[in-house]
Amino acid sequence: MELSQLLRERRSVHTFEDRPVSPELVMELLETAIWVPNHRMTQPWRFILTYGEGRRKIAEAVRKIKESKEPDPSKKKEVGQKFYDKIMSIPMILTVLMKEDPSLIVREEDYASTSCVIHNFSLLAWEKGIGLVWETYGWLHESIFRETMGIQPGEKVVGNLHIGYPAKIPPAQPRIPAAHLITVFDQA
């Protein structure tokens, strides 16, 4: 597939078939995805790959978080179970982390590079028929989740990637043409 076609056809996938994704394939794709521009070559990323029964770690943590935040005591268990089931329906989750440099400039460069890793991974996965969605929900920053997943102080969760074979591919969302968003200076 041509790169331009891959860029235009990739979609964020929210529903997945009930079939596993090979962790070896994900590792192979990550080995290519990390080849991104990274000023100072800090290579700040780290990954936590969760699948199979391992998903219960995330699902239980999210259940606790959601139950603790539900104001109606009669709905706590229902809300917790809903989120537990949602996590367990995702074939694989890749938690993407980055070291937070004390320098704001380096930290911003590192965030941009880590985002490029995620984008590269999404394109490589799509090329293999695997879909994903990059999630940045608030509970990624909760201490229960961080402790459960072994996320260290000084590490930022850039996102959770929900990975699987698409059960449904959403239609393309319109984009504003770049020609409408560019300012050109061609004279002094």
From TrEMBL:
Keyword Cell inner membrane: no
Domain spans labelled Nitroreductase: 7-165
Cofactor binding: number and manner: Binds 1 FMN per subunit.
InterPro entries: NAD(P)H_nitroreductase (IPR052530), Nitroreductase (IPR029479), Nitroreductase-like (IPR000415), YdjA-like (IPR026021)
MF (Gene Ontology): oxidoreductase activity
Cofactor section: FMN
Residues annotated to bind FMN: 10-12, 39, 134-136
Membrane-crossing segments per the record: none
SUPFAM superfamilies listed in its UniProt record: FMN-dependent nitroreductase-like (SSF55469)
Keywords recorded for this protein, A-Z: Flavoprotein, FMN, NAD, NADP, Oxidoreductase
Enzyme Commission designation: 1.-.-.-
Protein family according to the UniProt entry: Belongs to the nitroreductase family.
Name this polypeptide is given: Putative NAD(P)H nitroreductase
The species this protein was found in: Thermaerobacillus caldiproteolyticus
